[in-house]
Amino acid sequence: MSAGFIQLDRVLAHYGPETKEARGLLRVTVARALSQMSAQGNYRSAMLDSAESKAGTDVFFEKIQLTPRDDFQRLLHAQALQICADLGRARSLLLEQTGGSIPMPFLVVLIFWLAMIFTSFGLFAPANSTVIAVLFICALSVAGAIFLVLELDRPFQGLIQISDAPLRNALTHLGQPQDQ
């Protein structure tokens, strides 16, 4: 999405000075999203679907309803509308994917199955320190794998999160003059 914001800003910059207000609004929108992310520590679907977010999107879309004067501006206008549609689609995807996709019954069955496997290994192996250490290390690695799968299933929450660095980088590029 960060690349889309930068590309939209560039297209609007090439369109002409009449897009200055829309470019400023784009910068404010990205800055607001960043402040919400850092204020709450993670990006929740409620922030993506808030009335404020929808109103900002509607106002921005109204600002780019321009009247092109020539073929070049018509092309740029069409590109700007296409980029907006792509960003809206990405936003909708984020809204749909903010919840977890791993069903709890699957997780319970998986943990039960793994517990039975490790129990059977423990029953049939001799009780010495090497076997206990190996079983403990194996159980720890399986638990770590399950933890990582659960962490990666919710990319905006938990210990492993999607970085906001690309959005911060995009914010530095938004609103700059055309020649840069």
* Proportion of residues in extended strands: under 5%
Task: Kindly report the average pLDDT value.
Answer: 83
The profile of the biggest β sheet is: none
| Number of spatially distinct domains | 2
Principal-axis shape equals: elongated
Total strands: 0
> Can you tell me the residue ranges where pLDDT is under 50 for at least 5 consecutive residues?
none
Global Rg? 25 Å
Please give the oligomerization state of what you see: single chain
Task: Label the structural class.
Answer: mainly alpha
Order of helices and strands: HHHHHHHH
User: Terminal Cα separation, in Å?
Assistant: 21 Å
How many helical stretches? 8
Q: Percent of residues in helical segments?
A: over 70%
Give me the secondary-structure topology.
Blueprint: H1 2-15, H2 20-40, H3 45-48, H4 51-63, H5 71-97, H6 104-124, H7 129-153, H8 165-173
Explain this structure to me?
The protein has helices at residues 2-15, 20-40, 45-48, 51-63, 71-97, 104-124, 129-153, 165-173. The protein is mainly α. It has 2 domains: 2-98 and 163-173; 104-153. The longest helix has 27 residues, at 71-97. The two termini are 21 Å apart. The model has no long low-confidence stretch (mean pLDDT 83).
Characteristics of this structure?
180 residues; mainly alpha; 2 domains; 74% helix; elongated
What's the quick description here?
Helix content is 74%, strand content 0%.
